[in-house]
């Protein structure tokens, strides 16, 4: 279920989120930290606590992606911090350079709270997945990984989606355990 306040985000707030993300990366190039934002200067919607991910692409290739699965701060601040982190703190990539800044595509995902799925087997999980809709978190006692709903664009088959997510968690494609827990969530996409 999408939280009511995020079902129809006004264009002005969408644009503010995107411009804040870009400004935070620009600010980070000069100051080595995220753009400070004062949530009280923004709409009530942008002051609402929300979980977000910021994904950066360069030439249609992933260039950074950082976020959180649980809401703990105002959305506008969450986006500012995650834009900076995606550009400069994603351990998979070197820091974004000034030359790359104008070529970055910025994508923001606002997440709904995750819901635990009742699953009895891997097949049961696969049958419950809604391609193109569900974000998925899988975990056991030692590992945890998530894919945003946007990953379905590259991995449209549920088995491929799950196998790649298992690899991201550090497991083999064939790994399954009764200890695995699965949670689904939805995301509102802003680009």
Condensed summary:
The protein is α+β, with helices and mostly antiparallel strands. It has helices spanning 11-31, 44-47, 75-88, 98-101, 122-128, 158-168; strands spanning 51-58, 61-67, 104-111, 115-116, 135-139, 144-147, 181-185, 187-190.
**Can you count the helices?**
6
**Order of neighbouring strands in the sheet with most strands:** 2-1-3-8
Classify the beta-strand content into a percent band: 15-25%
**Approximate helicity band:** 25-40%
The CATH class of the largest domain turns out to be Alpha Beta
Ranges where pLDDT stays below 50 over 5 or more residues in a row are none
Q: Briefly note the CATH topology name of the largest domain.
A: Glycoprotein, Type 4 Pilin
Average of the residue pLDDT scores = 94
Radius of gyration: 17 Å
What's the helix-strand series?
A: HHEEHHEEHEEHEE
Largest sheet: 4 strands, antiparallel
What spatial form do the alpha-carbon principal axes imply? globular
Q: Mind telling me which CATH architecture of the largest domain this is?
A: 2-Layer Sandwich
Number of E-state strands: 8
């Amino acid at each position: 279920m999408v939280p009511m306040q995020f079902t129809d985000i006004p264009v002005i707030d969408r644009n503010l989120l995107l411009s804040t993300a870009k400004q935070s990366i620009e600010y980070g190039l000069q100051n080595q930290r995220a753009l400070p934002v004062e949530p009280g200067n923004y709409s009530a919607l942008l002051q609402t606590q929300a979980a977000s991910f910021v994904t950066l692409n360069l030439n249609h290739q992933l260039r950074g992606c950082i976020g959180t699965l649980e809401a703990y701060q105002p959305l506008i601040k969450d986006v500012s911090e995650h834009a900076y982190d995606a550009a400069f703190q994603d351990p998979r990539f070197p820091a974004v350079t000034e030359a790359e800044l104008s070529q970055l595509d910025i994508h923001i995902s606002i997440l709904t709270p995750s819901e635990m799925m009742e699953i009895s087997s891997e097949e049961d999980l696969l049958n419950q997945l809604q391609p193109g809709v569900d974000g998925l978190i899988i975990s056991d006692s030692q590992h945890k990984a998530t894919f945003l709903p946007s990953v379905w664009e590259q991995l449209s088959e549920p088995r491929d989606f799950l196998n790649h997510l298992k690899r991201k968690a550090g497991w083999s494609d064939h790994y399954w355990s009764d200890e695995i827990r699965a949670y689904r969530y939805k995301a509102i996409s802003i680009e």
